[in-house]
From TrEMBL:
It comes from Oreochromis aureus. PROSITE patterns: IG_LIKE (PS50835). Belongs to the MHC class I family. One of its GO terms (cellular component) is extracellular space. This is Ig-like domain-containing protein. PANTHER family: MHC CLASS I ANTIGEN TRANSCRIPT VARIANT 1-RELATED (PTHR16675:SF237), MHC CLASS I-RELATED (PTHR16675).
Amino acid sequence: MYGCEWDNETGKVKGYDQHGYDGEDFVALDLDTEIWIAPTPQAVTTKMKWDKNRALIAQKKNYLTQECPEWLKKYCQLYPGPQRVKHVVFKSPSSRVTCHATGFYPDRAELVWRKDGVELHEGVEKGEILPIIDGNFQMSVDLDLSSVRPEDWQRYDCVFQLSGVNEDIVTKLDKAAIRTNKSKSDKGRKHVMIYLLLSAGKSLAILIIIATLVLAVISFIVYKKRTGERQKQKSLLLDTLSKTDP
């Protein structure tokens, strides 16, 4: 992996130059100490050779901490960023209401339940922020409504807050908007679900700027199942590294 991170909020920059083999770390450049780190004994010989090339290390450090972040900033200005965050609010037979937000980036976000504009803590259970397959994130927060009368639902809302974005996304718990779905497996119990797709518009257009992004070139070796062929690849790689003096 070769690339950099830039955080628009803090201005912090972090670079990466990491090499791996067969799914395991091999060597990685520590930009603070300007030396190569060898996590395995097999990589020590390569580390010692590469540590001697101070000019190459200085060149890599300059690119990863100076040039790469500048390219990243330019890219962020051109990329429009995600435009919408999807909220799903559903009620289970146990009278717990779940607010689910998905499709946001980065993972510095909050999802809370409020009553009359005041954040609730009692009867609230927060879930973890989890990644989804497209690289964005999702999270959920539950609220116990067992003691709440249906006519009071309108006093509750779910609020999504993203770090660096001033405008919150507020979803009211509107009983009139609920659709009731029933299946044979429910045995007479009702599952009510609200689907809300809120457009954040320009308020989320800066997500890509706030986000910690990685411009990385990920290289990997696809090895075959047969042990003989995999060992042959490993021997060729180690032989190449032993002859290389960057």
